[in-house]
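hiii so um. not sure if this is the right channel but i have a protein structure encoded as tokens and i wanna go backwards to a sequence. like what aa goes where. can anyone help
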């Protein structure tokens, strides 16, 4: 089994896709006005509108209601990314901070309030863990 994507349900697909395109530098592939994907080398961030929810199970998902999941992106230099995002991000939760497990992390909220973590491994063990 391979983990390949995570999907965010939103009330405004265009707004959220635009945000993630700017934040990540990844161009989205649009499939319908209600569904787009941002593909990276290791996983895909899918963004879908509320009209897609009934296709799975009516009422099974609510937009802008995540209180437990953090979407994470490995970046080359989190401090530089932080500087570049200061005009785009309005809700930084934590400025770049080195975590006990060896990643330097930047935590913020997207326009729907979802937590996003951009991180860079900085200790030898963390660097080795993410070596490609």
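sure thing!! here u go:
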């Amino acid at each position: 089994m391979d983990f390949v994507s995570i999907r965010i349900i939103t009330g405004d697909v265009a707004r959220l896709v635009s945000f993630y395109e700017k934040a990540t530098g990844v161009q989205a592939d649009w499939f319908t006005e209600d569904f787009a994907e941002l593909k990276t080398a290791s996983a895909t961030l899918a963004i879908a509108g509320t009209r897609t929810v009934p296709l799975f199970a009516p009422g099974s998902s609510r937009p802008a209601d995540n209180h437990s999941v953090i979407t994470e992106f490995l970046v080359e230099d989190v401090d530089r990314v932080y500087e570049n995002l200061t005009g785009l991000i309005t809700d930084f939760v934590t400025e770049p901070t080195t975590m006990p497990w060896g990643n330097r992390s930047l935590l913020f909220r997207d326009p729907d309030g979802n937590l996003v973590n951009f991180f860079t491994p900085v200790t030898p063990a963390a660097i080795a863990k993410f070596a490609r």
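oh and The domain at 1-59 is CATH 3.30.720.120 (Signal recognition particle alu RNA binding heterodimer, srp9/1).
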